[in-house]
Amino acid sequence: MAITDKIYIKNHRQIVSQIETSFPKSAFSGATMDILYQGEGLAKLDDTTQDRVLDFATDFLDCDCESNPHCGCAEEKFTTYLLELREQGLGPDAIVDVMGDEYMLYAYPGDILSFLDDSIRTLEAVETLASVDGNREQERRAREVRESLVR
Ligand SMILES: [Zn+2]
């Protein structure tokens, strides 16, 4: 399961009652993107919620793919966003706080921790493979990113 399957909408119940349409709690579920982030329900949200929802749509759902928002770009961008927060030195709890403030989303810190661990292991594997292949440039890049995550 990808980390984006474990990102949830904060205040889900209130939002559902505001837009009077039910949608899944998971932020990256197809129905949530259609109803909350692209639908007409947006206008019915209170100002604060609307701002956060719009920020999310602007930052993650702005690609020009034909199948937007179901093209996978949003998931990819959000994964990068999480790694960037980690590079800034934030731990799982702080990362959860930031996504709550910025986009009204939440996740369990334990899931974020596993995601970061998996990312580091993937980079280690890339590094090892690159080293075996004699690809110094790729090895260096993977090491740099990995080191920025464990700092
Ligand atoms: Zn796309």
Structure description:
- This protein is mainly α and 151 residues long.
- It folds into two domains: 104 residues, no CATH class; 38 residues.
- The mean pLDDT is 94.
- It has seven helices and two strands; from the N terminus they run E-H-H-H-H-H-E-H-H.
- It has a two-stranded antiparallel ribbon.
- The structure holds zinc ion.
Provide tags for this entry.
151 residues; mainly alpha; 2 domains; two-stranded antiparallel sheet; 2 strands; binds zinc ion
What can be said about this structure in brief?
With 151 residues, this protein is mainly α. The protein has two domains: 3-106, no CATH class; 113-150.
List the helices and strands and how they pair.
Elements (H helix, E strand, L loop, with lengths): L7 E2 L2 H8 L10 H8 L9 H14 L12 H15 L4 H12 L1 E2 L2 H25 L2 H15 L1
Antiparallel strand pairs: 1-2
The structure holds zinc ion.
The site of zinc ion (ZN) has 5 residues, from loops.
**Biggest sheet overview:** 2 strands, antiparallel
Strand order of the largest sheet: 1-2
Question: What is the CA-based Rg, rounded?
Answer: 17 Å
Shape type: elongated
**Pattern of helices and strands:** EHHHHHEHH
> What is the domain total for the residues?
2
Q: Spans with pLDDT under 50 lasting ≥5 residues?
A: none
Mean pLDDT: 94
* Bound small molecules, deduplicated: zinc ion
